[in-house]
């Protein structure tokens, strides 16, 4: 699947806990210097994703940024206890799956097409 088609099929937003985050495109130029493919903008309620990524990498990047939002939502620090962090991430991922069936259908469609 082409990056353009993957982006077009991507849900416009995702609910993470009590917040709704919009997926917004960011250009390769914006991220080339930093070497990143996405950015969780938790205060603005956005997840920036490079919309020119290969489809499977776009899915991976979306999940990566979502996990940053779960981390932020749970108030985890960089030195968080591993078991506490894993429990909170698992709780966040379960809620994410229940709240966003279209997101997971998109991810499944992309990954199965590879």
Ordered list of secondary-structure elements with their pairings:
Elements: H1 3-9, E1 13-16, E2 19-26, H2 28-32, E3 38-41, E4 46-50, H3 55-73, H4 82-99, H5 101-112
Parallel strand pairs: 2-4
Antiparallel strand pairs: 1-2, 3-4
What features would you describe in this structure?
The protein is an alpha+beta fold and 114 residues long. It has one domain. It is built from five helices and four strands. The protein has helices at 3-9, 28-32, 55-73, 82-99, 101-112; strands at residues 13-16, 19-26, 38-41, 46-50. It has a four-stranded mixed sheet with strand order 1-2-4-3. Strand 1 and strand 2 (19-26) form a beta hairpin.
Number of strands: 4
Q: What percentage of residues falls in helices of 4 or more residues?
A: 40-55%
Radius of gyration: 14 Å
How many structurally independent domains?
A: 1
Adjacency order of strands in the biggest sheet: 1-2-4-3
SSE pattern: HEEHEEHHH
Mean pLDDT: 90
State the secondary-structure class: alpha+beta
Strand proportion, as a percent range, falls in 15-25%
Low-confidence stretches: none
- Report the end-to-end length measured between terminal Cα atoms: 8 Å
- What's the overall geometry? globular
What summary fits the major beta sheet?
4 strands, mixed
Please, how many helices? 5
